[in-house]
Design a protein that fits this description.
The chain is α/β, with parallel strands linked by helices and 273 residues long. The protein folds into two domains: 5-129 and 236-272, Periplasmic binding protein-like II (D-Maltodextrin-Binding Protein, domain 2, 3-Layer(aba) Sandwich), CATH 3.40.190.10; 132-231, Periplasmic binding protein-like II (D-Maltodextrin-Binding Protein, domain 2, 3-Layer(aba) Sandwich), CATH 3.40.190.10. Helix content is 40%, strand content 23%. The protein is built from eleven helices and 13 strands. A hairpin with a 5-residue loop joins strand 2 and strand 3. The two termini are 13 Å apart.
């Protein structure tokens, strides 16, 4: 793939708007803090809520240990806070309840940003974008793109092309939306995102649309040489803390910024995808 993997994974115009919203939200929240950061640093324990059934973000290995992208990210954040993570495995639907009840200090679990929850939790800046992406074979230079969710550069180069998608998925919906814009665009429905990407590599399609997680897994598992040319939609993954854990939320955001700038997030992508 061209450029920084993290820039692709966490990029997008909507992500910028989310970052602004998060920053404004932190500024207007009441200044009273619940002391979670102080307790974490005093005890050396950061309690991390997750649902360990979502590889490669989080799962259990043969010894029952939590492993994955989010697990390593939690360890990196805890280290920055002079603590270590204690993972609390909770069903995904119960993660917010566990956080608000004080069973965990933070949720790091492939958690999509949800504006309906902003009265109860503080969200971090995004650390991964799981949205739909347009990919082509690595050696194909005929389909251009900017890598951002704006189609000005890609519309013309898709005319007369065939795009593989998982039938009935969000990728399929994006392909239908693109066809309304481009006009002369064929879709090649496949049973799964993996099979859509296989069809691209086999030359049955000129491009494919799939979610970023499926694409990075495909690349990491040696499925074929493909590259992302456009981010079509945004589904940012974020970290959640309680509304009054203001100082912990700020510390997590500062840590994410350092991990991004140092290249550590790129390294996690390379390791788990």
């Amino acid at each position: 793939m061209q450029g920084s993997k993290f820039a692709r994974a966490a990029g997008g115009g909507a992500i910028i708007l989310l970052l602004v919203a998060v920053a404004v939200g932190l500024l207007v929240r009441e200044r009273k803090d619940d002391g979670t950061l102080d307790r974490v640093q005093a005890t050396g324990v950061l309690r991390v809520g997750l649902d360990a059934s979502f590889p490669p973000f989080e799962s259990l290995d043969g010894a029952g240990n939590v492993v994955g992208f989010d697990a390593d990210l939690a360890r990196a954040i805890a280290t920055e806070l002079d603590a270590g993570p204690v993972f609390v495995n909770v069903g995904f639907d119960g993660l917010y309840d566990a956080l608000l009840a004080g069973r965990v200090d933070v949720v790091i679990s492939g958690l999509p940003y949800d504006p309906r929850r902003t009265q109860d939790v503080i969200y971090s800046q995004p650390y991964f974008n799981a949205g739909q992406v347009l990919v082509v074979r690595a050696d194909d230079t005929t389909i251009a793109g900017s890598g951002e969710p704006a189609l000005s550069e890609v519309e013309g180069s898709l005319a007369g092309r065939t795009v593989a998608v998982e039938w009935g998925s969000l990728a399929d919906m994006e392909a239908r939306r693109l066809r309304e814009v481009v006009g002369d665009l064929e879709t090649l429905p496949q049973p799964t995102a993996r099979e859509a990407l296989d069809a691209l590599v086999a030359g049955q399609a000129d491009a494919a649309i799939a979610d970023a997680v499926s694409v990075y897994q495909f690349i990491g598992q040696g499925g074929g040489e493909v590259r992302v040319v456009e981010t079509l939609t945004d589904e940012p993954y974020v970290i959640a803390t309680r509304i009054k854990s203001r100082r912990l939320a700020e510390a997590i955001d500062d840590t994410l910024t350092r991990l991004r700038e140092s290249g550590a997030l790129d390294e996690l992508l390379a390791k788990w995808f």
